[in-house]
Amino acid sequence: MTLSIDAAGREKLVELCAGFTRLSEPTDMQGLKHAAVALVVVDGMNKNDPCLLLTRRSPRLRSHAAQWALPGGRCDKDETPVEAALRELDEELGLKISSDDALAVLDDYPTRSGYVVTPVVVWGGRIKQITPNPDEVQSVHRAPMTQLSDDSRVEFLTIPESDRPVIRLRVWDSTIHAPTAAFLYQFRELWAGRVTRVAHLEQPVFAWR
After folding, report:
1. What are the φ/ψ torsions at residue 16 (nearest 5 degrees)?
2. Tell me: the pLDDT tens digits for 45-83?
3. Which residues of 5-153 form beta strands (DSSP E)?
4. DSSP 50
5. Whole-prediction pTM value?
6. Are 63 and 74 in contact (CB under 8 A)?
7. Given 3-state DSSP classes, what are the helix, strand and coil percentages for the chain, each rounded to the nearest 5?
8. Is residue 175 part of a domain?
């Protein structure tokens, strides 16, 4: 499905989000830390091809350095996932987006590194200027929904270390792994009008820390 980056496209995405009922994970009971990421819908080089913002993490970071990621981070005390996602967008990319443009909260995803991550769908629209924080972000990219929606770019693998399927997505000439791949996959399913759960999808072994 193609949505335009205008008022009509935003309204259609609002309708799709309204039909989604999220599944949550009890972080307190499991001793997990809570984090949030932003799935930001923006325009691309082709104005008729909406994109999601992806980042390459700084190679100087202590964990998951130089990996593909969505803007986001740990929730502060008493902070909601929406508040955390919007704050991280400002801190990482210099984007000040209103809470009115946070359209939905998708399923929680427990990671192997001790977090429960909540994805937040955010309408960015026609963003002209992005100012990445070099301490956290090496580069910012606009991943076209035409690629994210292409079934041939989605792979489910089996590994001896787990009985859960490992998901990975190919975008451009790169491979994106879970948890980011899981968030992207659930969003592309929502984009197509489907509700698909992803918490069972596994991360690669190198991300188990």
Report:
1. -65, -40
2. 766 679 999 998 875 655 665 589 999 999 999 999 999
3. 33-42, 51-57, 68-69, 72-74, 102-105, 109-110, 115-125, 137-144
4. -
5. 0.94
6. no
7. 25, 35, 40
8. yes
